[in-house]
Amino acid sequence: MIDNTWTERTAGARLECEVNGRPVSLDVAPSARLLTVLREELGLTGTKRSCEIGRCGACMVMVDGKPINSCLTMAYQVSGSRITTIEGLASEAELHPVQQCFLEEGGYQCGYCTPGMIVSVTAMLEHNPNPTMEEIEEAMSGNLCRCTGYGGILRSIARAIETGGQSNDCR
Amino acid sequence: MAMSQEELLRSPAVWQPRSPEEAASMKTAFGPDAVYAAGSTLLRTQWEAGTATMPRHLIDLGRVAGLKGITEDGAETVIGPMTTLTECRTSERLAESAPILVEAVKAIAGWSVRNLATLGGNVVFRVGDSVPALIALNASLEWLEGSRRVRTSAEEWAAAPSSASRLLTSIRIPGGEAGARANAKRFCAYHKVGRREAFTPSLVTIAIQGTREEDGISSIRIAAGGGQTTPVRMTRAEELLLGGRPDANLLQAVYEAVLEQYEPKTDPFAADLYRKQTAANLVAAALWTQFRDSASKG
After folding, report:
1. Least buried of A25, A52, A164, B282, by fewest C-beta within 10 Å?
2. Which residue in the set A2, A52, A60 is minimally distant from B112, CB to CB?
3. Average pLDDT of B48-68?
4. Exposure string (b/e) for B254-267, b if CB count within 10 Å is 16 or more?
């Protein structure tokens, strides 16, 4: 029933998925972390490595439109999925509206948590364009910032909600 | 880019069975070298922390038919163990039939982790924060043990998990209390205390589910857990409350019963006395909130 051979192991190790709108096919270990695949195999270093236990949110990406911690996710779990990283939000010509709001409202300081924050805000607004403060707190509880005290981040989110985080009118 | 030989050797083989029976037969074949994998969020943190080693084989349950989703079976609500915590959190059916489970799930980790993590994974963890809610709801768990189907209550599972290798196949929440009169009103509460307001491991969790009628409480189940404490029923407090109308004197007795029966595991973050007092206060306060009219007259 089970062909427990190295050939069998390797055969299942090809990751086929879509990253930022482009098809990707890679030979990676099925248990490789998505974070490692993105940063080291694809060079997408906007996704940050930090706590590595799913707590800080610096490694946040969207998988099929849902935010997930790439440090907790293994390659086989995203087979066939559509992955969006921070690099996939902006167009070539301009920033994503949520990025623009963070820029204009001072939603960052050292910037290390910012990609994960922006991915989480984008995912939240795609699911719920008009969240209450309670819903914002729940959606953002998985993203930590040690610099800003969150004031600028909450201003940025409020601005993104006001101006419509899905459109390009935050400028 | 090619995968290095070293990486390949370190990595477990991932098997993706299509049926519970196939998954169980893989586990039988590989024995302790294999681990079932659901959302794998806990496994990954254990591997990172060094509290568990990566197994040689992962049996991914993600493609097993029939293990996902929330359905009805007669009066029971049936939850597939591979249903994510987010799906439980947003389920209208669960909001109606098991609101304390929704409250419990809402307080587990953050949205992004809940998108991966499953209810089954939290249950099998045994000290997961959903377990007190499932005990209070009198939920039962269905398992596949080899080729045999086994059903246990969540309470039995928490008290004494089987040493046999089992695959959780469903989590079943009963409908109304058998024998409850039509005018019986349900009351329930779930509270979690941690070291932070959100996204925090629990120190103490309590869950209460009961029915009240004109002549007093007609049914009640109280469970307490939190941290590494295996959730248990607070049977002495239940006995005091059954048939009664909670007033200040009864709530004082309930407080003391929980204080006596709840035996938390301690850790460097909180002593057992703090946890005991917290659990007792949470139970008494939750009941006071439900019965504040009669309680204020005591």
Report:
1. A25
2. A60
3. 94
4. bbebbbebbebeee
